[in-house]
Amino acid sequence: MNYKNFTALLLQWHTNVNKRQMPWKGVKDPYKVWLSEIILQQTRVDQGWAYYEKFLKKYPTIELLAKAKDDAVFKLWEGLGYYTRCKNLLYTARFIVKEYGGIFPDKYEDILALKGVGTYTAAAIASFCFDLPYAVVDGNVFRVLSRVYGNATPVDSNEGKKIFSELAANVLDKEKPGLFNQGIMDFGATVCRPALPLCTQCPLNKICSAFKKASVNVLPVKEKLMQKKTRWFTYFVFEARGKVFVRKRITKDIWQNLFEYYLVETAANPLWSYESINDFLKNQTGIQDFKIEQLAAAQPQKLTHQHINGYFIHIILESIPQTLKGDQIQWLGQKAVKLLPFPGFINDYQKIKKNKPLFFKFV
Ligand code: SF4
């Protein structure tokens, strides 16, 4: 596996392209980094930003935070939720003042031993502030690695956590761990996003397995998602010169070994519009010449443990683009398609399509 390309391309993107602004970015003071990481543990960046600034204004040093009255600190935390974080923040500030004379520990193991600090936060503090070679690993990082290396091991399984943590350690730039960690976090948040990643503008698309094999939307695989009650499947039915895109489902999930069209799974109802379909096709598949023919609501399907809802979107293409070729993918004529085994969810669509036009047709 090639790690060097990944590392170099990511760092290049971070240095030359990444414009994401956050007040704690590039900061070396471990007190400030620790504060920002604790705030961000269960809070979105836009919400946490103001709290970070309020805290630093009132308690610019760890000594001042340690000396503060509990009620005053909790008051400042009000609205952020998950108050255990606030309790741990105070505890740890006082612990560092008492045990380390107010100097933040600079060894990974000592940072990790602090109350409220997990492996992600410890790696962030160790790499940003002390240039220690520890990779940050969270959902963002797992997603990027699963897609680039085309690995379908469920990211929330024990095996997946082990594999992707090792992979993260392998791609980490050991000379510039802080810069690299910040880069991969920003990249996961702004380019290789969970839904609708910006593949066509992505600096890694030449080495990205998921992009090359048109499996961006089926990676990463999540065990919990597989067991979830309601799932939203959108199938893009790509047709080019009488041939249709079909692919075998090979991951350990429902309908394994059956065939399907190009799948996009979303956590909630994607409520497709003409514009969002357009954006999706351009940003993710890089197709420029297409006609959005029809959008159809799927016939919901109730399986034993899950309900499947979704849409079928029929797209007519001029020719077969490179981005829709790859392992397991076939482009077949209607007769050959009919011979393949499909799940009931897709068979229902095929029947409806033939018998009655239940579709919203774009003109
Ligand atoms: S090409 Fe797409 S899936 Fe691959 S790394 Fe880039 S944004 Fe992520």
Describe the protein's architecture and organization.
This protein is an alpha+beta fold. It folds into two domains: 4-190, Endonuclease III, domain 1 (Orthogonal Bundle), CATH 1.10.340; 230-361, Nucleoside Triphosphate Pyrophosphohydrolase (Alpha-Beta Complex). Helix content is 45%, strand content 14%. It has 16 helices and nine strands. The protein has helices spanning 4-16, 30-40, 45-58, 62-67, 70-77, 84-100, 108-112, 119-130, 139-148, 158-171, 177-190, 209-212, 223-227, 274-285, 334-338, 344-355; strands at residues 230-240, 243-248, 259-260, 262-266, 290-297, 301-302, 307-317, 329-333, 360-361. Strands 1, 2, 3, 4, 5, 6, 7, 8 and 9 form a nine-stranded mixed beta sheet that branches. α2 crosses α3. The longest helix is centred in the N-terminal third of the chain and has 17 residues, at 84-100. The chain starts with a helix and ends with a strand. Iron/sulfur cluster binds next to α9 and α12.
